Amino acid sequence: MPASEIPGMERICDIFESFVGALAIHSGFSKVLEPLCLLFAPWAEKLCEADSSSSSPEVGRRVRDKYQFALRRLAGVSPAPLKPLNLQPLESNSSAWCIPRLADPSELLTAHMRGWRTLDSSGVELPPNYPPPVPAVESSHLRLWTEALTDVHCRLYFGTEVGSNHRYRAVGESLYALAVTTLAIDHAPAHSPAQLNELRIECTNKDLVARLGLILNLHANLRVLRIVDEADWVAPNRVATAFYAVVAVVYLQTDWSTLMAWLGELLSPWVDAAAQRRLRASSGAEKQLDPTGVRACYLTTVPKSRRNHKTRSRVAGRMGMHAA
What we know:
Elements: H1 9-27, H2 29-53, H3 61-74, E1 88-89, E2 96-98, H4 107-110, E3 137-138, H5 142-148, H6 152-158, H7 166-187, H8 193-203, H9 206-215, H10 236-253, H11 256-275, H12 294-300, H13 309-319
Antiparallel strand pairs: 1-2, 2-3
Pfam family, one: Ribonuclease_3
Protein name: RNase III domain-containing protein
GO molecular function, one term: ribonuclease III activity
């Protein structure tokens, strides 16, 4: 094929991503994961070798800035020792453990707490005995779970022998987004790509993710830097990070089907509510736009905005419209 006939880079990216998505929908995640691993393995190995040979810090500047703020908050006082995980053995399997369930987890969905934004769950129909419990922890994976529930500041303070959830967060966040996308396609087959994207934004909102961590009782096991007599209060971003890390660990100790079965029960009520526009979790969703106003104009034509003509043409092509 002549070079002049090869589509642009962004177009090729769209085609490749669409192909991967179609393969995942029709054949399942496990089927598409194997060829992708073979495809990206050489690149991942090179990147890992480059990272191991470089002198780059373990965490980024933003994490270190927050760590320095946490140290100032301690004001020179030694933090409380790291507490062990509060797990209960499963009656049916002596080698497995589980996180204790809360007596009334629904209260934490709407509870007003310092530093936490209010989540409106009035339009979400939660089934009885919600939420589904976190999958059991095998004794051989207790180290992974301990790391998943340990904040990165603990590793920076106590030393590298203490594991943290810093590396698991990115894995869990990607898996969570994939689960939301999979459920969105199943629960809203008639939605347009723009509507599916809006649904995904609602269900991946940080406030919702943090509340899910609360009702799963992850905060009771979360290990963070705190003063000895300080109340067991944790910030929402810490709980959200722990939730993503737990998602990653569940996948690492089991497989995608087990993770998807659990997340399916956990997220289906929220995905259904978002698909029917009964969930307004994100801050942007709080601004209801007049359907006859700006939103309708944007959906009919691509406006002449600050973006250049090339960008407007690309957006127009993706939405099946003509640039204004």
